[in-house]
Specification:
The protein is an alpha/beta fold. It has a single domain, classed as NAD(P)-binding Rossmann-like Domain (Rossmann fold, 3-Layer(aba) Sandwich). It is 42% helix and 16% strand. It contains five helices and four strands. It has a four-stranded parallel sheet, covered by helices on one side. Helix 2 links the parallel strand 2 and strand 3. Helix 3 packs parallel to helix 5. The structure holds NADP nicotinamide-adenine-dinucleotide phosphate.
Length: 122
């Protein structure tokens, strides 16, 4: 299968990617940092399956469609999307809460879900 994983370079994402690669699945690895993505894709080459990478900032949902339009080949025939990317923000009592952080958490964790819609439209 061809499986797209967001947050692929993180703790959970990279563990999921390693296991799926072991089973021979072809992966599309997604996060912001291109160097980390390439490093993971390089590591997973040992399983002799092709993996692709897409660097994207899911905190900027308005840029997602445009960025993905440059990756049509990578996005063809995706069977499964694992929408794992998320941030926790900071925990604090409401009177001290930093609204920039609050908004960033919602952009990545909630609005970034628009990603799934756009992936499905390619
Ligand atoms: N680890 C735990 O104990 C735990 C427990 C319960 C739930 N969870 C949940 O599991 C998920 C993954 O957790 P984790 O521990 O693997 O987190 P992590 O190690 O911090 O990884 C987060 C991943 O998301 C990517 N990411 C962050 N912001 C992004 C953005 N704006 N756009 C695109 N990608 C972004 C990061 O890559 P870049 O920074 O390179 O973009 C990284 O690949 C989260 O939903 C988390 O809330 C984790």
């Amino acid at each position: 299968m061809k499986i797209l994983i967001t947050g692929a370079t993180g703790a959970f994402g990279s563990s999921i990617a390693r296991r799926l690669a072991e089973y021979g699945h072809s992966l599309v690895l997604v996060s912001r940092n291109n160097d980390k993505l390439r490093c993971l894709a390089e590591e997973l080459k040992v399983h002799a399956v092709e993996h692709q990478t897409i660097a994207i900032d899911m905190a900027k949902p308005e840029t997602i469609e445009d960025t993905l339009s440059h990756h049509i080949a990578e996005l063809s025939e995706i069977d499964v999307v694992i929408n794992n990317a998320a941030i926790a923000g900071e925990f604090s009592i409401s009177s001290n809460y930093d609204f920039d952080t609050f908004n960033r958490v919602f952009d990545v964790n909630v609005h970034g879900g628009a990603f799934l819609f756009f992936v499905n439209s390619f």
